Each structure stands twice: as C-alpha cells, then as structure tokens.
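Quick one - inputs below.
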Amino acid sequence: MKKEFYNIAKLVTQNSKVLDVGCGNGELMKYITENISKDIRGIELSKSNVQKCVEKGLTVIEGNAEKDLMQFPDGSFDFVILSQTLQAFLDPENVLNELLRIGKKAIVSIPNFGHWKVRLHLLLKGTMPVTENLPNEWYNTPNLHMCTIKDFENYCKKRDIKINLKNLKFQNFFSELGIFILEK
Amino acid sequence: MNKFKDIKKIIVEKPLKLDCGQTINNYPLAYETYGKLNGDRSNAIMIFHALTGDQFASGINPITKKDGWWSYALGPGKAIDTDKYFVIASNVIGGCMGSFGPSDINPDTKKPYGTNFPVITINDMVNAQYNLLDYFKIEKLFSVIGGSMGGMQVLQFVSNFPNKALTAIPIACTASHSAQNIALNELGRQSIMADRNWQDGFYEEQNKQPDKGLAVARMAAHITYLSKAGLQEKFGRKLQERDDLKFSFDADFQIESYLRYQGSVFVDRFDANSYLYITRAMDYFDLTKKFGGNLSKAFEKSNTKFFIISFTSDWLYPTSENRDIVIALNAIGKNVGFVEISSDKGHDSFLLDVPDFLNTVKYFLNTSYKEIK
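Output:
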C-alpha cells in the first residue's frame, strides 16, 4: 500500500464514521476497515474501480463527488477523506465546501507543485514538470487545478478553514505531497 | 386449479386487509424453496419476482418445463448460493402460479373471480408473503432481493418491516412508478381489453382466452425490456428466412418474428387478468405517498444494509430512479452501496448472464454474511 495511505489512516480515529471520496480500487478503505473502523464507505466514479471495491466486500457508491456529495446531511461523517483528487475537479472550491459540510473533519492530500524537483524541472528544462507524483504530460493530465502547499494554506486562511500545518516553508519545498486535516 | 395440485402452498388463515379496503383470508400462497435452512435460522433469503415471474426461480419450472427465471443468479455456487443460503420465493397474490389470483374460484359464485378479484397493491403482495416468515419460523431474514417489480417489493418490505431483513438488494427498480411506465402498462391492459375474447374479464367461464390481446401486450412490454443498441446488435434489419422483402405484412424481419414468438409462448403460461392486476399494482406503487413525498421517511426506522443496482441501458427503470433511492437513504445516514452495471441488454439485464452484476450480488451477500457469522 502507498505510504500516503498509512499516513492518512493514522489520522482517522478508531471506530469513527468515514467517507472516502474518490476511493479508487478501495485499497485505503480496506486498510481502514480492517485496522481502524468498519463504519466506512466510499464514492467512486470509475466503473472498473467500483467493481474492485465490490470484490473487496467494501461499501461503495458509484457516483461523482462533484455532484453527489450534496445528498449527505451536514456533519454526517467524522472524517471525509479526499486523496489527491482535489486538483482534478472542475470546481475544487465547491468540493472542499462540501467536504467540510458533511464531515466534522476532512483529510485532504494534494500533490505539491512547490516541491523542489518540480521547481527545478520548470526552471532548468522550461517544460511542464513530469515527476513520480505527477506522471502525466500537460496534454493528458487529469489535474486541472494544481497548487502548492503554500497556495493551499493561503486558501484555507482566506476561507477561515482550520488547517494543521507546521514548517510551511520546509514542507512547501521538500514534501511531494501535502496531507492535511481541515476543520471549519 | 388442478395443474397446481402438486406445488407447495400455504393457506393463509390470518385476515389481510387490502389497500382497496377489502379483507381476504384463507387464501393460498404458493411458494418454492431452495437450499437448506441452517440451525439458527440465520441464512434465509426472500426473493421477490417481477411482473411475469413466479416462485420457480431456479431449476426447471414444473408447470412450464422451462428454466426458472433467475437460473443465472440462483443455485448451488451461484451469486445467490443455495449451498449456503436458504431461499424462499413465492408467487405474488394476483398471480397465476398457484397463489390467490383472478382465476381462482369465487366461493360465492362458484365461478372464477375474473375482474371481481380485488385490486391489489405491492403493499398487499408483500404483506401476504410476510406470512411465510411465520410459517418457516424465521425471526430475521438475512436478505431480501428482487429486480424490477421484485425490487419494489424489496423496498416495500423494508419499509413495512424495518427490522426483519439484515440486508436488501433492490435491483433495476423505482420507489415510485413513472408516468412512462404507467403509460406502457396501460398500453398492455388496453390491448388485452380490446380482445373480444376478454369478455370484461369473465373469459374463463365462457371457455375463451384473450390470447391475441395478451400476446400484443407481451410484445410491447418485451421491447421495453431490451435496449435500442441490444436490438440493433441482435437483429438489425436481418430478414426472417427469406432473401428479400415480401411486400406483405408477414414477419419479414427477424425482430418481428422474434416478438411474435415471445407473444405466442407467453399466452401459454400467463393469465390475462393476472397481467391486468399485477401491472395495476405496479402503477399504484409510490412508496413516497404515505410519507408526504419524502422517501427517506419510508426507511427511517430501518437498520437494513442496502445495496442498489441499476443498468446503463435500462430505460424502463433508469439509473436516475434507482439513484433516487440511494439519495434518500444517504440523506438519513443509512448504510447503502450502489453500482450501475454496464450492459446493453436493457432492463432484462438482471435476468441474464451479466458477470459484473452477478459478481456484485455475490460479493455483497458473502461479505455481509461473514459479518454476521
């Protein structure tokens, strides 16, 4: 399992009620179900991924996070997880608002466009950075709204969203991923 | 009726007040079971059939000598594994496979009820079938499962008996019958009623059968169970045993011949009045009505774990209507999963060999069963 998933799972409280938005093939959900909380379900857009979740015996709802989060009432989950998909939404701001409405806490991870490798790539090569975490070219990337950890922090400040972040400068330069717990 | 003398049935003594106001009692409810009930009676599943189904879901139907309607899904080692689960299927009241229906003899007139049979609803069907839980002394069902009208019964069952089923799988259904579907059912009913042999519903006492009307109803309905892409792929403009058009009204095209065949075999196994009564029950189905239009309220008292399944090419009970049920359940924080299966086989997909669908049912049941063991 990806190291990112262990780090996300660590943030989830035992036996809490969890929603994994864009749960992919269910890897993280399965880990949380087996080790942290059975009260978890996921939303996933891709039919083949939905089948993989079903095969793992997970509760999955086929759907689109940009439209389908509105059906959940306020505060209906202790944690809502969004792993590396925020930048791929048409309207990430709306998704963030929805996450913070339906979840008491939101765990959000983003690929950091401020990582030194990304900066160096653009500086030296003058082309859009292609890295391990950002493997696509500009013409086929699903990422519509890339940001840096610093951008994300600025956004949260502006919107009065509580964010757990230490050593911003260090992280913004050296972390390929930012994993945050957000609260309204 | 004589042909039903060897099939299993219970006589329900307990009076049932129907939605139409009439009360029935001492009525027959025909059923079939598959698999074995375990020691603590925790492995029972009730399945509900669709419009033209019956209790013979798997194996060979002893009356029609054809495969049961859910042979792909139900049986040893299959999605609903009868090596593991005890499955109860019954014929709905209003039906024509041994349960109380319009061709039964009215004790007052000594003649078949015909259209003097009371109009029944999905709610009535489910309340009648509930008696089988008492009969088999089952405190709690492991699951309730059904597609199409069977799915409506699943929803009604959970709403009526919120803590009698641990899991529920409504498939390709709706919580409220749409105008389009009422229209299509009305087309079928009018076709039957337009047949001179229908005789206002009293055809049996005159030894007549409205076969033509019933066949046309079936043909029209059959189209709605398929999809445009599926029809095009299977039939296209292929001609039926001829090299060119005949410039007549014979069945030139394979699709015509296919539909005529579907109509002709249907009249051998189905009763025209049952078709009227059951389609009426579907049209009257609106689970939200009792709850001021709020579907969530129908499930408020339930802890049943749901898994809802729809099919991409089903235009009769489209994904959007299935998703409305998901939305209603999520709105009150209930446990619900949902998938839309890719298939070009239309509404009929739930009856056919659609691997992703069958796997979904299988994994959901098996995982849920492990959780209770």
